[in-house]
């Protein structure tokens, strides 16, 4: 059975998103000549272990115009763009991804994840999407959580973005 792996970028003080939902605290160039080889190997190993990405509607809206044209992301960007994608949304009708195959919109992410987990293939990646993450955690669907901790602190509390809040 495939695993559902949730991945979150967080600050050292456990902030997973800015008030606007952004990730301005994620700094650096993960795939430049300056990238630590061990970090790059870890990130590439992870993307090689999945074939499906799941996003919430808000998380989908942020990168959909960047990633399809992010040639500077090299092999990582190519692999990310070619993943099968699903967007959990009660409002979207379609979810285009540049010149790559569009994401499939689902109104029932829990049922869709159960179905995907029973199919053959690589693992399933839930990227960001705090509200969706909380709902699939509550449904008992999460097999693994990967926290990518950025070496920054926001020094404030945000009810919206604290991982542990419900």
Write up what this structure looks like:
The protein is an alpha/beta fold and 166 residues long. The chain has a single domain, classed as Dihydrofolate Reductase, subunit A, CATH 3.40.430. It is built from five helices and seven strands. The chain has helices spanning 37-48, 57-61, 74-81, 109-118, 130-138, and strands at residues 4-11, 50-56, 84-88, 95-97, 100-106, 123-127, 144-150. Strands 4-5-3-2-6-1-7 form a seven-stranded mixed sheet. A hairpin with a 2-residue loop joins β4 (95-97) and β5 (100-106). The mean pLDDT is 85.
How do you describe this structure in short?
By secondary structure, this protein is of the alpha/beta class.
Write the layout of secondary structure elements.
Elements: E1 4-11, H1 37-48, E2 50-56, H2 57-61, H3 74-81, E3 84-88, E4 95-97, E5 100-106, H4 109-118, E6 123-127, H5 130-138, E7 144-150
